[in-house]
Design the sequence.
């Protein structure tokens, strides 16, 4: 299923972002820096040569920020991991080795040194592909 997440970057809660970064093991100083960069932000909206009164922004990451896609990806991955926690049907299994030559597929048949991981989704900025096997899984995703 292909998903275009319209306004995706605007929906991120600052508090959830902080908790997710901590859960993913981001260093405390980095979490604090990102939180300070976004929290307490005030904006004014230009209106026909004038501007509105300043008001607080409580959700979203800054557009154009080089960290925004990575922060959104982290949040979306955490959400999908939670959604697909018990779902074994829609996973794509990937086998890989970290040693040796690339593109030698015979190495993946070995019984040792082969790692396996599972993928539910592929992300690029605010576009996503979710792997689902049934209509019910599509609705849940």
Sequence:
């Amino acid at each position: 299923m292909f998903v275009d997440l319209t306004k995706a970057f605007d929906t991120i809660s600052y508090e959830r972002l902080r908790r997710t970064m901590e859960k993913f093991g981001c260093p405390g100083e980095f979490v604090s820096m990102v939180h300070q960069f976004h929290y307490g932000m005030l904006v004014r909206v230009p209106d026909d040569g004038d501007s509105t009164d300043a008001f607080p922004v409580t959700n979203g990451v800054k557009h154009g920020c080089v960290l925004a896609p990575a922060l959104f990806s982290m949040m979306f991955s955490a959400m999908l991991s939670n959604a697909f926690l018990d779902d074994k049907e829609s996973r794509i299994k990937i086998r890989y080795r970290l040693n040796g030559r690339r593109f030698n597929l015979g190495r993946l048949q070995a019984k040792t040194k082969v790692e396996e991981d599972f993928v539910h989704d592929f992300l690029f900025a605010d576009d996503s592909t979710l792997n689902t096997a049934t209509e019910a899984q599509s609705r849940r995703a």
Observations:
- DSSP finds four helices and nine strands in the chain.
- The chain has a mean pLDDT of 77.
- The CA atoms of residues 55 and 108 lie 56 Å apart.
